[in-house]
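Record 1 of the preview.
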Amino acid sequence: MISRLDADQRAVVDTLAGAFAEAGHELYLVGGVVRDILLERKTLADLDLATSATPEQVKAIAARLDHQGLYDVGERFGTIGIVFAGEGGPRPVEITTYRSERYVPGSRHPDVVYGESISDDLARRDVTINAIAVDVRDGAIVDPHYGRADLAMGLLRAVGDPDERFREDPLRLLRVARFVSRLGFAVEAETRAAMRRQADTIETVSAERILAEITRLLCGEYAGHGLETLLETGLLVRAMPELMPLEDSVYAYAGAHREKDLWEHTKQVVVQSPPRSVVRWAALLHDAAKPLTRSVDAQGEVHFFGHERVGADLARRLLGRLKADKATRIAVTRLVDMHLRCASYDVATWTDSAVRRLALEADGILPDLLDLAAADVTSANARKQREAASRVQGLRDHLARLEAEVALAQLQSPLDGNDLMRMFDRRPDKWIAEIKDHLRELVIDGELAPDDRETATRIARDLVAAMDAVQETS
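->
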């Protein structure tokens, strides 16, 4: 199996195998890289290894090796990272002392207990396909929980007693759903039942860890299946209670086709959007407020007026509670708030200035907004699909043509505040903003070139004269 590693990985493993053997310690490949090799994936996960050495002993062994640095972010969990040089760039390796871990009631982080053997270490892992190890000395496979059989069947099965595994670390509940999203595997029946029973324990896990797992789930190839796993096991609203109205909508309007399909639509938009975290989060949340804004008119038509604004607030609260970074919170919130804008584009009626205004309003998120708009088409009607795709592509083409003429960054007033203060010999005040805004609007409308300072000066003088006249008469 080790022969299936790439050249850099093999070199690292050979170096470590010799160093740990010389020091009298065991060393095994574990985790995602073993799973990926067995699945014959082309791109393998980073190297994770398990050892009988303690963290201090690992650092002592590493001190004798040629490497680029150590990091011990996970040392309290028994993990030491070593960065080796490779032809393809730096190669990080994480080496973890045999361990088991458990949650103390009331704690949001696991306690770590070191194990004595690779069997102890594999017994504490989450699912059987992750409980396979490879001895780096001779390539022997250690598979006490029949993980290879579950790999062949495409099954996610908890190691040992599933309730016990999830009680030890409730984050594993989300990890199982994340593996569904990444691999497209089914969850074994007893494991799924235990997930339902233990779902409320996810509330003991820190917000940051929940955010990280859900983000990975959303970016998986089979994200729709991962989300369905969250829904069916009761994890969706326990991890993200803000989505309770969306979950309720799956069942609430069984006789109303549109509401019944809202969850299916959401999953499909997620899958159809590019696997970038900001876009995938926006896809998950773009219609989350529809149940909150649902109304029915006199003709029996269902409407969701303002759901994008309510949804933006919902997204802001959810991501804030999960402690997402500021840039992500702002970007996702803006995407949800603006997600309907591209759908109204019409090449026959949208002027250049209207397209420029949209681009400026979406500054910083425009590519994501266009990708979200393209994904937000899930109609089974082929004609509607073609029309929607043509509308988004038409907007992309329109934006590209305008950008080729004048870069969006140049759509500014030809005169800045310093220019205006020198020109009129006046102290800074709101009059500057009023003139600059007016000149910028003319630039956006194509009535004034961004570099036409002469015309801008004449317009500014006229505006100041008008302001003075109004002030004199008031």
